[in-house]
Structures are given as C-alpha cells and as structure tokens.
C-alpha cells in the first residue's frame, strides 16, 4: 500500500500555475490550453491511481488513512486555487484556467465521496469553494420559497425558520457530512412542489418534505409541535382527538422517511420526536393506562444498548422469526422492549416508532445487523 504522495497535483498547482509566474510570463491562449489539458490529465490519473489502490488494498485501516490523506490534500489544493482566484484583478484567461482546475479538483473529491464513503473523514471541514456553491444554493432556495409558497402566516413562519437555519451554515465552517446533507436537501427542494396541501394531510408539502428529509433543527420541531398542538386543541371530544392522533401517526409511517441522514446526526429523528409525542397523547387519553405505564417503566431498570432503533427492531424481528422469541402478541412485545431498552440515540423508545421500524427495514439497516451478527459469531467462537 502506497501512502499519499504530495506530488499528485501539488507541483502543478503550487508551482506551474502560480499567479505570479503566469502573470510574469503573460501566457497566451496556447499556454492556457496546455495547462487545461494537463489539469484534465492530472484529474484522470488521480482517479485511475486511486481505483488501482482500492483494487489491491489489503489493509482496510491503511486504506482509510490513504483516502483521508487524499481528501485533505484535495481540500488544501481547492483552497489554494480559490486564493489564486481572489488574487487576480483582471485577465479572463487566468480566471477560466483556475475555474477549470477547481472543477477538476471538485470532481476528484466527489469521486472519493461517492466510491469510498465509509473511508471519508466526515468530520473534516469542507473547502471554501464548496461553501461558495452552498451559499449560492441557499440564495436560490430563498428565491424559490418566496416565489412559490402561498401567502399564509403558517407558511411564512416555516419559510423563515428554514432559511434562518440554512443561513447559519453559509459562512462555515461546515463538516463534510453536514454539507452533504444540506446540498442534498437543497437539490431536491429545488425540483419539488412545496405549495398547496394534499387532501387529508396534517401538514403542508414543505413541512412534510422537512420531516421526510429529517430536518431535525430545534426551531422546526417547535414549529411542528405548535401546529399539531393547535390542531389537537381545536377538537372537542376525546374520541375526535384519538381519531386525529391515530390518523397523523399513520400519516407519518406512510411518509418515505429518510432516517439514515439528518441535519444534526447526534439528535433523534424528527419523526421519532413527533411519534413519541403522539404516543404520549394517546396514552393520556386511555383511562388509567398512562399512570400504570409510567409506574411500570420507572420500577424496572432499563437495559442500555449501543444500537439504533432500526437495528434493535430488526434484531427483534430476526429473533421472533427464528423462534428465539415466542410471544404471539407483537404489540405487547413492542411495548415491553420500548419500556425496558434504550437505543443509541434516545433513552425513550416509542412503541409506535419501534412498530414502524419492525416492519419497514432499510438496506443499510440489514447490512448493519448482518455485520453485528457476524461479529457475534466471532465472539461465540472465541468463548472457551
């Protein structure tokens, strides 16, 4: 395994296309064309070499070091070329050259992120040129939301919350993982219809989109609790309230929720927050059940786990379908697990959320559980 060589791109950018050198040489169009051709060649050689490294890699830890090293190098060079751009007062040819070189570097960085995502340092800060692209995307989103949303107080409040949260990230620094989420959020938002409201939907299309994309900012959650609380308080009888709560819970489970990504990865998902609130409201309307449930939960120490709710739910399903768990009433099983276990991100598992994850399994969750079960087999074999 070869370790990152600093001569990849480095000499070309730090020496050959240095602004002072090119300005002194007064390059013509033929010279610029040769530099553009060389930049494209460096880009292709970089990706070819990295793919060869991936094919022949034997040590995953060393390969992760290699990828994070390439990532850091590309970020450094992107910031360098960005600095070159700001040093040029005139000269269209140099502007075109540096813009093209920056595009080649960005393509290499995307190549790493798309083909080797688990080896990328997600906590590393994104380079300035990527922040500039994000800043432009936020400006476009602002214009779109102002143009397309219906003139209502609720929609205006949601728009202001969304834009205020996005503007917080504009000046950086932003970790790669968060920037990747934000870019995906804005890219899909640009092609979605966010005005109007579907029949029987408890929220607007824009609010539903934020829930689906797991836009779990505190301000957005407070907005959701506010509009749902207002709708609930407008109903007269407990029967009407129970029917509405069950309808909203069913609506959440039918949304194509993207729970693997989030604006803030350390916080629980938006849907988990909202379903937990619904479950508490439903329990509060069942005579005596809320008090009994609280007493039972508090009287039994919980078992803490290091896995997420989807992983815990799939493990439970595997145990049930292989006959390890023999309970016939699944709803009681869900309530028992929710009362007695914690997940990686929350100490309070919603029975409704657990129910949803039990029956709706994502491919990433399957891979995680498979890896975990294989690790368990290794442990079993080592036990004397």
Architecture blueprint of SSEs:
Layout: H1 10-16, H2 19-25, H3 29-56, H4 60-87, H5 92-115, H6 128-148, H7 153-167, H8 176-189, H9 205-212, H10 218-233, H11 238-254, H12 270-284, H13 289-299, H14 309-321, H15 330-340, H16 351-359, H17 363-382
Helix pairs in contact: 3-5, 4-5, 6-7, 6-8, 7-10, 11-12, 14-16, 14-17, 15-16
Description:
This protein is an all-alpha fold and 384 residues long. Among the domains are: 10-121, no CATH class; 302-384, no CATH class. Helices cover 69% and strands 0% of the residues. It has 17 helices and no strands. The chain has helices at residues 10-16, 19-25, 29-56, 60-87, 92-115, 128-148, 153-167, 176-189, 205-212, 218-233, 238-254, 270-284, 289-299, 309-321, 330-340, 351-359, 363-382. Helix 3 (29-56) packs parallel to helix 5 (92-115) and helix 14 crosses helix 16 (351-359). It is flat.
Mean pLDDT: 81
The share of residues in helices is: 55-70%
Overall spatial form: flat
Distance N to C terminus:
36 Å
Q: What's the gyration radius in Å?
A: 26 Å
Topology order in helix (H) and strand (E) letters: HHHHHHHHHHHHHHHHH
What share of the residues does DSSP label as strand, in percent?
under 5%
Major sheet: none
Question: Total strand count, please?
Answer: 0
Q: How many helix segments?
A: 17
Overall structural class, as computed from helix and strand content, comes to mainly alpha
Low-confidence stretches: 1-6, 287-297
